[in-house]
Task: inverse folding
């Protein structure tokens, strides 16, 4: 996706619909090549620094594998081991790292910090999850629906649970591709009004639809895909008890998915909590695509890296 060369990837509302769809299609191509054992060395000699302020399995390993498959190198940087973990400024860190690396991928507590890093760095910055967005996840999610359902436009995806970072990026991604996204959360845990407004504006141009309800059955009715995420995101551990209470009735279980299309896909960004946001019967059942979805992080991110670098 030529237009993304040298750009940051912080949030999907900064991309055009064609760019989002282009990344998904490039992901399809790179996945097919990989399945044939072909790994074009598009990023030979390129170095990605990967800064983590939070835990990660999928993001860390898929980005590192992706860089290696593309002929480049990735460096895991735990923020606690860096001087930034003991107070060195984002400003100084951004300028210093720009001299060593070709791009930065960062998972951070605060989106504002990632924005500052991107503003100050002279190299592209990729968001690997913040408090408000998880764009690389949403690209892999689109890729998974595109593979299984053949197309995105006109498909209905229901997101049930917490209106969090994963939900925000999914809502914008769905709007960009002309999908219908129906979100069900308890009151008080809705997606951010800014995100909903942005997504509605994008959907107005693509023919997509964006809606919110507090009724999971309404959201899931007729859905092609049913998506959920943890009720307690990283950094919210102290709220666990209150959240378990607030999200009662929002578990994606057999009774709920009966309202979706018979061939619905179950999706979850992982890590999952069986018996909380999803029943074991659904996440481990025949309609679950969670491992294909997790694998697609690799392919979608290779598309991002190849385009940006
Ligand atoms: N889905 C996701 O981002 O997983 P990790 O936290 O393991 O990276
Ligand atoms: N919403 C979750 C996603 C983890 C990949 C979190 O932020 O912890």
Result:
């Amino acid at each position: 996706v030529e237009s993304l060369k040298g750009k940051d990837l912080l949030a999907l509302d900064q991309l055009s619909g064609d760019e989002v769809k282009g990344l998904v299609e490039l992901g399809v191509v790179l996945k097919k090549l990989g399945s044939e054992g072909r790994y074009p060395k598009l990023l030979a000699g390129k170095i990605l620094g990967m800064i983590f302020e939070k835990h990660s399995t999928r993001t860390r390993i898929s980005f590192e594998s992706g860089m290696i498959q593309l002929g480049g190198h990735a460096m895991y940087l735990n923020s606690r081991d860096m001087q930034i973990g003991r107070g060195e400024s984002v400003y100084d860190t951004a300028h210093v790292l720009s001299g060593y690396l070709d791009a930065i991928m960062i998972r951070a507590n605060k989106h504002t910090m990632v924005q500052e890093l991107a503003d100050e760095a002279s190299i592209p910055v990729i968001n690997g999850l913040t408090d408000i967005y998880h764009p690389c996840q949403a690209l892999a999610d689109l890729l998974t629906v595109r593979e299984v359902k053949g197309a995105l436009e006109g498909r209905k995806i229901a997101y049930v649970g917490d209106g969090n970072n994963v939900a925000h990026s999914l809502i914008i991604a769905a709007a960009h591709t002309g999908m219908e996204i129906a979100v069900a959360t308890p009151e008080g845990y809705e997606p951010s009004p800014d995100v909903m407004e942005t997504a509605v504006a994008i959907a107005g141009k693509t023919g997509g639809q964006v809606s919110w309800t507090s009724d999971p059955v309404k959201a899931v009715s007729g859905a092609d895909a049913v998506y959920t995420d943890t009720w307690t995101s990283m950094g919210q551990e102290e709220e666990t008890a209150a959240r378990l209470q607030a999200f009662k009735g929002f578990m994606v279980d057999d009774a709920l998915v009966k309202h979706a299309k018979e061939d619905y896909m179950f999706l979850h960004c992982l890590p999952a909590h069986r018996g909380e946001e999803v029943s074991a019967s659904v996440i481990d059942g025949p309609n679950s695509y969670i491992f294909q979805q997790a694998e697609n992080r690799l392919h979608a991110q290779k598309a991002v890296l190849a385009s940006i670098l």
About this structure: The beta strands are 47-52, 73-78, 103-107, 125-127, 156-160, 180-184, 209-213, 225-228, 265-268. The mean pLDDT is 98. Residues 17-35 form the longest helix (19 residues).
